[in-house]
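REQUEST FORM: STRUCTURE PREDICTION
Request ID: SP-0412
Submitted by: Lab K.M.
Chain count: 1
Length (residues): 520
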Amino acid sequence: MDLSFFIGVGALITVLPLFLYFFYTNSTDHITSGSHAPPKAGGAWPFTGHLHVMSGGKLPHIALGAMADKHGPIFEIRLGVRQALVVSDAKLAKELFTKCDLAVSSRPETASSRNLGYEMAMFGFAPYGQYWREVRKVVSTELLSARRLELQKHVLVSETDLSINELFGVWSQKANVAGRVSVEMKQWFGDLNLNTVLRMVVGKRCFGSGGGDIDEARRCQRVMRDFFHLAGVFVVGDIMPYLRWLDVGGYEKKMKETSKELDLLVGQWLEEHREREILDKGKDFMDVMLCVVRGTKFQNQHDSDIIIKSTCSNLISGASDTTSIMLVWAMALLLNNNHALRKVQQELDDQVGRDKRVNDSDIDKLVYLQAVVKETLRLYPAAPLSGPREFTQDCVLGTYNVSKGTILFVNIWKLHRDPKIWSEDPLEFRPERFLTTHRHVDVKSPNFDYIPFGGGRRICPGINYGMRMLHLVLASLLQAFDISTPNGEEVDMSESGGLTNGKATPLDVLVSPRLCPSLY
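STATUS: Completed
RESULT:
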């Protein structure tokens, strides 16, 4: 036998007593095992608990959805030494994000929050408190508020128009004998979104005319994809701290490498801003951060450069990844439901026509397009299991006692498919439901039947940006081009893992112009 075998056996013998000690002293089973504790899911393995459910063959939101069919809309699972509560009920979600909101507004400390989140300085990972509130306020008012987005509307419009024009240019050069050209839409949506977000946050674009270094751009996209994949990975060391030193799966190492690459990219952009010495609040968000961070209370918690880099990288990664994912799902659903695709294009012809390009002011008239976006977000919310939260106080939820320290997962994917709420074919793509039975439901509904962006204090701050981008890009693309799949085959709807549920396979389509050439 080689030396590594004996080292492994020695490590196991060394760690086993600690393993048992931590398991029995840190497990919260003894706290919540009373008659009013939430139901406990069966099938836990010794020591690891339900880790196999979260990191097995099925994606976590699907696996936990199947467990909800057996155990009900609220149940507990054990992840190593930690208890976790899984909720997939609208009434309970309303309680969580209203009555219990303060108690569930923090994040658990994890390998991803430490290694990807600048030691939890990134506001998406930060624990609830003064620092998080101050950063969130700046982000909400200086970049993502309705007022600020109106001022930045020209960026969204110009980037969308440029991308449509460039796609027409590709068609002009490469169209086949049938007058169509093949395009991979995941890449197209990704390039468009990254250009838009980068212009708003750091004042530059990476792709197309006026773009920068294409290698830097692809590197940026790769880092963002790795970021979201690793942020959603369940790391053994998070639930069994005594095994963290083993770095099972090598995830912490990968997180550190990804974090270093992201830091180098954003750090380079920060230096470029400092060299320009333009600290104009109207220029871009990084300029705003340079102004705001100087001499503020932020510096009591983190270095000013860390605050700027972590906040800007959070915005770039969040906005570019999630919006691209939602556009891909919307397009995939329309291609698999051709009647809906034709209905969207007919609405565009009726409400806007083909003698001018659709613009932001036309969106209110496109009610069926809005219903398509809502239905896409219902079936494929960008974060189907929400971001994990942590109870910072003992709490009563419904009739159940939940202990401080319990991790919370809200299974948005399962909640959005509840037949009690979505009674008419809840698993099917039916945009019409948002024009009839659910016509008053939207992303900010107070009843919590529909929460694609989460809820409570930690609701996604990018709602206004995301909805505006989804509507404008889809309307512009579907007005300008006819789109179909090669040979008319169905789109593969397999999902990928990670914090966000992207489409696992490419989205290859054929496009041809619908408008006269002078409009491109």
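NOTES: The first strand starts at residue 74 and ends at 79.
Reviewed by: T.R.
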